[in-house]
Amino acid sequence: MKRALSLIFICTGWLLGQGPSVAQPAFAVPAPTPNSVAPSAPGPANIPVGLASLTNGYVPDNSYQLRVGDTVSFQIVEDRILNLQAVPASLVVMDSGEVDVPYTGRVKAVDKTCNQLGEEIKKELEKKYYKKATVVLSLNVANRLLGRVYIWGQVHSQGPVNLVVNEQLTAAKAIMQAGGFADFANKRKVKVVRTAPQGTNQTFDLDMTDIMDKGDTEKDIALKPNDMIIVPSRLINF
Description:
By secondary structure, this protein is α+β, with helices and mostly antiparallel strands. About 15% of the residues lie in helices and about 25% in strands. The strands form four sheets. The protein has a five-stranded mixed beta sheet, covered by helices on one side. Strands 2-8-4-5 form a four-stranded mixed beta sheet.
C-alpha cells in the first residue's frame, strides 16, 4: 500500500571550504495529510535572491541552477520516521548531468533548481512507491568552478582558464592569467567568440591597448563559460 505523504523543499548551501548557512525555505509546504508527518520549515532569512548572495556562501534554490560537481542532500521524510533512511543521502551531480536517486535511479539535474528537481523526483516516487511523496532536497555544496574559457594565439600560455564563482573574469584578466601577450601579439585585434544558445556565434572585438595600456577598463567584457579568446599575430613583426 502506498504511503500518504506531502512535499517539502529546503535549500541549505555552502561553497567549498565554507561552513553551512541558515536554511531558507524554497517551496510552499502543503498541509500534511493525516497519515503524514512533515517537519517544520525554518523561517525566511533576509538573504538576497540570485548569484549575488553567493558572496555570503549561500545559494538559494529558487534561482540557482544545479551544475556538474554540485552535491545535494536527499531524504524521504517517512523513510526517516520508519528508520529506513536514518540520515540524508548525499547525491553528486555527475559528469553526465544526472544524480542517482534512491528508488528512481538516474535523474537529470543540470540546469534545474532544487524545486524543479525535487518535483520530478516526487512524481517518480508517486508512480510506484507512495500516494504522495515527502521529499527533502537541499543543496549542500556548490561547485566553485563555473566552467572554463579558452585562450588561443599570441599569449605565453595557451589553453583553458578556470571561471570561478564570485570572480568576475574579464578578457584582460584572462590574458594576464595566461602569462600575458607574447612578443608578436596584435593587441588591437583581440577577439572574444561566444556561442549563443541557438548555436550561433557572437564575436566581440577588443582593443587591448586601450584596456590594458591606457586603463580604459569599461571597454573590457566579462567572460562566460566556453568563451574563446583569440589573440592574433601582427602582420609585420619587428
